[in-house]
Amino acid sequence: MHMQRDNEGIRLPKLLGLAVAGATLLAGMVVLPATQASAATDYGFAAEDDFVAGALDTTKVPQLTVTKYLSLDNGYAPTGSANDVVELNKNKDLTPAKGILFNVKEVQPTEGKSLADIDANDDKTYVVKPGSTLFAGVTDGHGVIDTWYQGNSDGSISTDPNTGKVTNTVASFPTGPNHYYILSENQDLSPAFLDTNPNKLDKTKYKAAANSFFGLPYATNGTDKNQTRGFIYHLHLYPKNINQQSFAKTVQSVAGSDNTPKNQTIAKAGDTITYKLSQKIYNEGNASAPKDGKLDVKELAGNSADVLLADRMSSSLKGDEGSISVVVRGSDGTSQALVKDTDYTQDTSTNKNPSRLNDTSKKMFGDAPSDDVTYWVFNFFTASGVSKVKNITTSVMELEVTYKATVTGNGDSTGTGGVVNDAASDFSDNKNTNGDAQDPLPSHTNVTNAVVAFGSVQSEHENPQYGALPGTEYRLVKNADSIDKYLGSDGNFYAEDSVPDGVQLYKATANNKGLVVFSGLPIFETPAKATDKTVQNTSWMVVETKTPKNWRNPGVPFGTITYGDVGLTEEAIVQKYGNNATLQPDYSKLNFGKFDAAASAVPADTQMKFNNVLISKYLAHYKTTDGDSPLALPLTGGRGILLLLVVGALIMGGALYARNRRNNAARA
Q1: Is the dihedral of CA 38, 41, 46, 47 positive or negative?
Q2: Which residues cross the membrane (predicted)?
Q3: Strand partners, 279
């Protein structure tokens, strides 16, 4: 399966069986014997913690699992038990991050110091233990590292350039007492941050996770009445990156067409996604300063020009205006609900790119390649809204706009990643130290969804060569025998006039750049509606259903659209590719035949990108007057067929005239 990903703005999936370890792990490192022994759950731990009461078992090989989160705020200090995952799941602003490299090194105190002096963030307090292994691991799509490799000298993990498989040796942590480690994030070598990643994370947006110091096995007390001593042999750590940017957009949840919440952020047409826009507002009093790029309560003017939040939804999303909820929330959990037209104003009907707040000569977003987009615009605050903000007394608060949007069968008109959303924030103090307006703060979200992307272009004979042909419309069909029945969101095929309630038909229309994108496709859907959905062995075909005037419809179906990873569950797909991946088919099997325009022949200024990567398939079109079209019959009703009819009539008339003359001569 071909795949790209975009790691930002996603929801926390359920990670049952994971535990949490404390930022104050040092207190639990003292090894003391205990005589009582029982199941881990008897002492307040989950079975996954592998807590065993009593003395250290020197035969047990300890394990370490790391789960990496991107966070909008501080909080949720880890405490050491897998039971805490329930609380973590409640915070939907914690999102797992794929492609983060972590290193674990065994350490000992520097000369003259003790274990109690070790500070994980001060390398003067410790040295690497001689002869020890440098461990390295990279988070999967759930943000998890549960397999560690022997790291290279720089902490990296080598992979085979052809297969992508890791070539380093799997490494185990040593048994027995007196093994202490420091876990650190290696941002410089993390795949998620590398320039070669087309959807890399922005290092300037997230603070690196703090280092962690811990013993393994981990000595601790149980939470039973006797606080029984023992050891955790499977330690779970949850390092976090805190979002330094004052604006973010996140996916809070995904629900099926029956409103049942999904455990994974995988979406298809008919599903509903809940989004949240979050804008930080500070309450720093005298510490606040103008032109610092931070909006403070004392800077609020109450003239509906303090904060401008804008959200651009592509054709693959239809927002539900009735679901909008707006609150200001303090870091202590206190909140104030804001009322439309009383505390703020909104416009959810425009398809015009809104102007910036601090520089109205510029727009909030770059130009969209299609008019089939909708902009939702929120202006804060009125005087009433400012009064409510001032009722929140914490030093940092969040202005939160939450709403729902339904995934449609109408392909992604922006062509930036399937079921995708772009948002931006501008606010009164979004200025540099000179007082000049800065660019709005962007945020881009996506969910895991199956897509097909190709280019609709003019033939090589046109000028410009292989120029875009926008406006062409396409559908997906089962096979060449049923080209009038189109793929629906339930995985079945229907004629236009026989679509059941609750089912959407898929279509995709070439945008202004000629890019065609089907998004939110039902690759997990089966007629039997299996509970444990898996990737199906699809064999769809593409047909062109509308063609711009004076251009020829190819008139034949193209195949085949099929995806890899057949049989993998939704959870396994997210684990492998991440929870905001775009799953793409094997384009080598999508054969345009004589209508194919080789990607290598398409001029550089005409080449198209999807999800920041150049596409590999282009479908060429011919004008109705072109005689060299693979289908040369001019079947448009234009002058071409008229000329054929006239010429044919003249030929037939001449033949009849000649025959009559011969017959008359024979009778004479």
Answers
A1: positive
A2: 640-658
A3: 247, 399
Q: Please state which of the ranges 294-303, 421-430, 530-539, 588-597 shows the lowest mean pLDDT.
A: 530-539
Q: State the amino acid at position 638 in one-letter form.
A: G
Asked whether residue 527 carries a pLDDT value surpassing 90, the answer given is no
Q: What residues pair up with 105 in beta bridges, in sequence order?
A: 134, 182
**How far is it, in rounded angstroms, from Cα 568 to Cα 16?**
19
Order the strands of the 272-282 sheet from edge to edge.
247-255, 272-282, 396-407, 317-330, 335-337
How far is residue 429's CA from residue 505's CA, in Å, rounded to a whole number?
45
pLDDT at 231: 95
Is the CB of residue 252 less than 8 Å from the CB of residue 405?
no
Given a contact cutoff of 8 angstroms between Cβ atoms, the answer to whether 504 and 409 are in contact is: yes
| Whether the Cβ atoms of residue 516 and residue 547 lie closer than 8 Å to each other | no
Q: What 3-state class would DSSP assign to 26? A: helix
pLDDT reading at 394 higher than 50: yes
What 8-state DSSP symbol labels residue 53? E
Q: Which two tokens stand for residue 454?
A: 């190709």
Nearest alpha carbon to residue 104 among 72, 146, 55: 146
- Amino acid identity, residue 603? P
> What's the pTM value of the predicted model, to 2 decimals?
0.86
**370 near 315, Cβ under 8 Å?**
yes
- Sequence-ordered list of residues with C-beta below 8 angstroms from that of 41, at least 6 positions apart, any chain: 47
State the Cα–Cα distance between residues 275 and 262, nearest whole angstrom. Answer: 15
